[in-house]
Amino acid sequence: MILAIFGIIVSLLLLITLAYRGVPVILAAPVAAVVCVLFSGAPILASYTEIFMPAMAGFVGSWFPVFLVGAIFGILMTVTGYAESIARTVTGWIGSRRAIAATVITSALMTYGGISLFVVAFVMYPLARELFRVADIPRRLIPAPSPWASSPSP
Question: What are the φ/ψ torsions at residue 43 (nearest 5 degrees)?
């Protein structure tokens, strides 16, 4: 039991480390899941084929339309220049040195305003990227003030 809990903690730390090093989550998640399964003592192949893959397929199948619309909306905000316009406006209000605060405030306003959290995540990336570029903050810090952190609890 304690070894399994330790495995969960180790796999979570591994997932965070891989994500911050730029490894795509689609590759990092299965690796972290293998570490968790190894610590639990369950059979690896059966855990993947009977638990992990059906659960992942169900999640993707249920949420694909929301992800698709959110991704399209985020791309449209980038292509039309709307993200850059919002970034300049917010930067003008609170200053270019406060890009992290601007990202958190904008995310909170959008989620509390009723926009789906998944859509906000896709919309906020181009906006945060532009804010961080103006403030000369590395892009790897964008996940810290992400909409996931500022969203209301269910």
Answer: -65, 135
66 closest CA partner among 130, 12, 116: 116
Q: How many helices (H) and strands (E) does the chain have?
A: 8, 0
pLDDT tens column, 6-50: 989 999 999 999 988 888 888 888 899 899 999 988 888 888 888
CB atoms within 10 A of CB 7: 18
Which tokens belong to 89? 């406006």
- Distance (Å, whole) CA 76 – CA 107: 18
30 touches 78 (CB < 8 A): no
Contact (Cβ atoms closer than 8 angstroms) between residue 17 and residue 31: no
Q: Could you tell me if 154 and 106 are in contact, meaning their C-beta atoms sit under 8 angstroms apart? A: no
pLDDT digits (tens, 9 = 90+) for 62-86: 988 887 887 787 778 778 877 677 7
Mean pLDDT for the chain overall: 80
Distance CA 143, CA 154 (A): 20
